[in-house]
Write a structure and sequence with these properties.
The structure is a single chain. With about 350 residues, this protein is of the alpha/beta class. The protein has two domains: about 1-115 and about 305-320, Nucleotidyltransferase, domain 5 (2-Layer Sandwich); about 130-300, Nucleotidyltransferase, domain 5, CATH 3.30.420. Helices cover about 45% and strands about 20% of the residues. Helix 6 (about 165-175) runs parallel beside helix 8 (about 220-230). The chain binds 5'-O-[(R)-(carboxyoxy)(hydroxy)phosphoryl]adenosine and zinc ion. 5'-O-[(R)-(carboxyoxy)(hydroxy)phosphoryl]adenosine (KG4) binds near residues 183 and 185. 5'-O-[(R)-(carboxyoxy)(hydroxy)phosphoryl]adenosine binds next to helix 6 and helix 7.
């Protein structure tokens, strides 16, 4: 089954063609990062306008790269929640129109579950293997969650951030330090080879039983603000400071994820979302995995940040399961994650 995926929930316009939920034929992405950089964050109306300008071209690119035409499509999957409403409206309207004109099914995909499914695109074996739970660490610009996925498809969010998401912690730190948006990749690079023990940053909610799997990153950002305020840091001091800041985030994420995996008897930990690109986080998780009897599945970086391959891949499972065709609405729905449709 050839599924076209469309993603427009935030600042990336993306389209992708995926066969049977795992064979990625193409993945085209047009990033608006530069357009939003001067504002230090994503402006929803600007994002929507950019999606509208780019969506046709991005879809054509995805079809060309895959060597396919619209007539080859069996279905369309489009992100319909969560995300920026004006931005979501562009993708969902486009998908609805295209689906109606081609007479093929259109399904609305949950962006967060798609991030999780991105871990399985190249690891379909895990979906078929055994009966133990899977622990997912979802770390993106807007979300930080630990989710326990059972083999019957039910999900339990056992931990979340109580304030900023991990990606926001990187982006806001960059803003404080006068670095461009998005901060994650820049801080990741700056921290390489620097001393991550140079500056003492707090480990928020670590060792707090009532918040065992929860996160908090806003205090960390304030701590950074006070540490650099009115100081003229040398380039090396700056690198050591960001490395220490990153270390605090990596330490808390790793510790709590392994604690959850042990508590809920998972044999696999999957790590997904934009922050899962972070090299220090990937290294630390792998080191921990070697010590415990748990496999850490690191989503390939090209499927960590926003992309449409994850939307098309997950959409395949929804199209297979769907009976009636309805127009897809761009509305946030609660609960955002309660079950996944990809086992069995
Ligand atoms: O999943 P994503 O592309 O978009 C959302 O759905 O939010 O995640 C974007 C986030 C941004 O906050 C960005 O700074 C962060 O992912 N990010 C990183 C890295 N690459 C992207 N954070 C840390 N290290 C990275 N290498
Ligand atoms: Zn995302």
């Amino acid at each position: 089954m050839f599924v076209l995926g469309i993603e427009s929930s935030c600042d990336e316009t993306a389209a992708s063609l995926v066969v049977d939920g795992h064979e990625v034929l193409s993945s085209a992405i047009s990033s608006q990062v530069k357009k939003h950089a001067e504002y230090g964050g994503v402006i929803p109306e600007l994002a929507a306008r950019e999606h509208l300008t780019n969506i046709r071209q991005v879809m054509d690119l995805a079809l060309n790269d895959a060597g396919k035409t619209l007539e080859d499509l069996d279905g369309i999957a489009v992100t319909n929640h969560p995300g920026l409403l004006p931005a979501l409206l562009v993708g969902t309207s486009y998908a609805n129109g295209l689906g109606a004109s081609l007479g093929i099914p259109v399904v609305g995909v949950n962006h967060l579950i798609a991030h999780i499914y991105a871990s399985f695109i190249e690891r379909q074996d895990i979906l078929k293997e055994g009966d133990s739970t899977i622990t997912a660490l979802l770390v993106s610009g807007g979300h930080t969650q630990i989710i326990i996925i059972s083999r019957d498809g039910t999900c339990e969010i056992v931990g979340s951030t109580i304030d900023d998401a991990a990606g926001e912690a990187f982006d806001k730190a960059a803003k404080i330090l006068g670095l461009p948006y998005p901060g994650g990749p820049i801080i990741d690079n700056m921290a390489k080879g620097a001393n991550h023990k140079a500056v003492d940053f707090p480990r928020p909610l670590k060792g707090k039983p009532e918040h065992r799997f929860n996160f908090s990153f806003s205090g960390l950002k304030t701590s950074l603000l006070y540490k650099v305020k009115d100081k003229d840091l040398s380039p090396q001091e700056m690198k050591d400071t960001v490395a220490s800041y990153q270390e605090a985030i990596v330490d808390v994420l790793t510790h709590k994820t392994f604690d959850a995996a042990k508590t809920y008897h998972s044999k696999h930990i999957v790590v997904c979302g934009g922050v899962a690109c972070n090299s220090a986080l990937r290294e630390r998780l792998q080191t921990m995995a070697a010590k415990k009897n748990i496999e850490v599945v690191l989503t390939p970086p090209k499927f960590c940040t926003d992309n449409a391959a994850m939307i098309a891949a997950l959409g395949y499972h929804q199209i297979k399961a769907s009976k009636e065709q309805e127009l897809i609405e761009a509305v946030p729905r609660a609960p955002l994650i309660s079950s996944v449709p990809f086992f069995g």
